[in-house]
Amino acid sequence: MRSLAHLPSVAGLLFAVFLYQVAHDSLPAVWMYYVQHKFGWGPSESGWSLTFVGVMTVLVMGVLTGTVVPRLGERRAVVVGFLLMSAGFLSYALVPYGWMIYPAIAIGSLGGLRDAPLPRAGL
Fold first, then answer.
1. What is the pLDDT of residue 121?
2. How far apart are CA 63 and CA 102, in angstroms?
3. How far is CA 99 from the centre of its chain?
4. Is the pTM of this model over 0.90?
5. d(CA 59, CA 22)
6. 122: left (phi over 0), alpha (psi -120 to 50) or beta
7. d(CA 33, CA 22)
8. Positive or negative torsion for Cα 80, 84, 89, 91
C-alpha cells in the first residue's frame, strides 16, 4: 500500500475505496436496528427486506451484469454502479415509510454493476 500511496491519483482512489467499503460493510451490521428504529419493524419484516436484498443481488449479478456491462462497457458500468449504489444509500436514509425501502433496495442493488471486471489497463 505504501508503494502505491505516493501516487496522488492512486492515493485518492485508495481513500475512496476505503470510504466505500466502510459504508457498504456497516450497512448489514446496523440494518436490523435501523429498520426497527425508523419503521418499527420486527424480525419478520427485517428478514423479508434482507431476503429481497439477496434476491436482487442474484438477479443483478446473475442476469443483469452479463447483459448490461457489454452494452455500457466496463468503465461506464463501474461508474453507473457506484452512482446507483450511492443513490440507494441516500434513499435508505430518506424514505419515510417502510414499504419505500424496497424500491430503494432495488436501486441500491443495481450498484452490483460496479463489480464488473475492470479493464486490464485500469480505469
1. 47
2. 19
3. 19
4. no
5. 24
6. left
7. 17
8. positive
What percent of the chain stands above pLDDT 70?
89
| CB crowding 89-98: b at 16 or more within 10 Å, else e | bebbeebeee
Alpha-carbon distance of 64 to 48, in angstroms, equals 22
62: Cβ–Cβ under 8 A, 6 or more apart, which residues?
none
Splitting the chain (123 residues) into consecutive groups of 10 residues, what average pLDDT does each group show?
69 80 86 95 95 94 88 88 91 96 95 68 48
Alpha carbons within 13 angstroms on the beta-carbon side of residue 97 total 3
Residue 56 has a CB neighbour count (10 Å cut-off) of 19
d(CA 39, CA 29): 17
